[in-house]
Amino acid sequence: MTTIQEQNKELIHRYLDEIWGKGKITAADEFLSPEYKRYLSPLAEPLHVNGQKQRLAGFRAAFPDVQITVEDMFAEGDRVVFRSTMRATHQGSFQGIQPTGNRVTVALLDVIRFGNGKFIEHWGGPDLFDLVKQLGAKFPIE
Predict the structure, then answer these.
(1) For the chain, which residues make up each domain, given as ranges?
(2) Cβ atoms within 10 A of the Cβ of 131, count?
(3) CATH number for region 3-134
(4) Are strands 118-126 and 32-39 parallel, antiparallel or unpaired?
(5) Nearest to 108 by CA among 43, 12, 6
(6) In the prediction, which pLDDT does 1 show?
């Protein structure tokens, strides 16, 4: 593994600590390239830096005590893949679901492509289906 790959992995740990752990959304500019694209769905336009900041702020408002634990992390070339676990309490509105007070534990899987020491592209994220189920949503396919 190269020094750059190790630096990229460390950058992810710092991002998770600063943005998710401490809620410092304004620190996103330290991590996200001006060309940053956040892909949430193959059918949707990617978010850019400001859209990602809004998404992060909304998520933190709904789950202000969110903590993410990295379970596995792999680096190859200009990409880092990590599997993590999110634990949080639902204390604000999320996707139209009013606060439930439910404690959630959700799996995440992310892939980040780096360039010049910043995130350029980002895919993946939390298992939203499992998350909304833990908030009490009912689905006819269960």
Answers:
(1) 3-134
(2) 23
(3) 3.10.450.50
(4) parallel
(5) 12
(6) 64
* DSSP, residue by residue, the chain: --HHHHHHHHHHHHHIIIIIIS--GGGHHHHEEEEEEEES-TTSPPB-HHHHHHHHHHHHHH-TT-EEEEEEEEEETTEEEEEEEEEEE--S-BTTBPP---EEEEEEEEEEEEETTEEEEEEEEE-HHHHHHHTT---TT-
Residue type, 142: E
Ramachandran bin of 12, using left for φ above 0, alpha for ψ from -120 to 50, beta for the remaining angles? alpha
Local confidence pLDDT in tens for the 142 residues of the chain? 679 999 999 999 999 999 999 999 999 999 999 999 999 999 999 999 999 999 999 999 999 999 999 999 999 999 999 999 999 999 999 999 999 999 999 999 999 999 999 999 999 999 999 999 999 988 776 5
Q: Cα–Cα distance between 137 and 125 in angstroms, integer?
A: 19
pLDDT score for 2: 77
Question: Considering only CA atoms, which of 132, 142, 79, 83 is closest in space to residue 108?
Answer: 83
